[in-house]
Write a structure and sequence with these properties.
140 residues, mainly alpha, 10 helices, 0% strand, globular
Length: 140
């Protein structure tokens, strides 16, 4: 259960706004959430992630890209899996055990949310709980 130096480097670059947006894709979002959850309890990780992402997208002129429901859904899903599976030794081991999280982003979300919900302004600005849940067999 180790947050490695490269995990912390990503976190620091993100929080210092030194991370170029083209180097901050879906997997990096997931890794950032995992790193925060490995370091802090859920409520603190949630606060840091939300505030940090809003600041990051605003800094890069893309404030309209922030989506509260997607951000928190992935954070809660990572937290749930850490609780169920135990904390993985490294980010890469966690990802190896949970490849569906890093797979096609839209496909994963469709298993939990109708498209019209995710496209709504309400979901963009406020967390909307998932309407559907997948069975354990369909997650892996």
């Amino acid at each position: 259960m180790t947050v490695r130096d490269d995990d912390m480097q990503l976190l620091m670059q993100f929080e210092n706004l030194d991370l170029p947006p083209e180097q901050f894709g879906h997997r990096e979002h997931l890794r950032l959430a995992w790193t925060m959850l490995m370091r802090w309890p859920l409520h603190r990780a949630m606060d840091r992630l939300v505030r940090g992402l809003k600041r990051f997208v605003s800094h890069h002129g893309a404030a309209d890209r922030y989506h509260e429901t997607i951000t928190l859904f992935y954070l809660f899903e990572i937290d749930r899996r850490l609780a169920e599976q135990g904390k993985a030794e490294t980010w890469h081991r966690f990802l190896d055990a949970n490849p569906d999280l890093a797979g096609p982003h839209r496909d994963f979300l469709r298993r939990h949310y109708p498209a019209d919900v995710l496209q709504s302004d309400v979901a963009r600005e406020h967390f909307v709980p998932p309407a559907r849940t997948s069975s354990p067999a369909s997650r892996h």
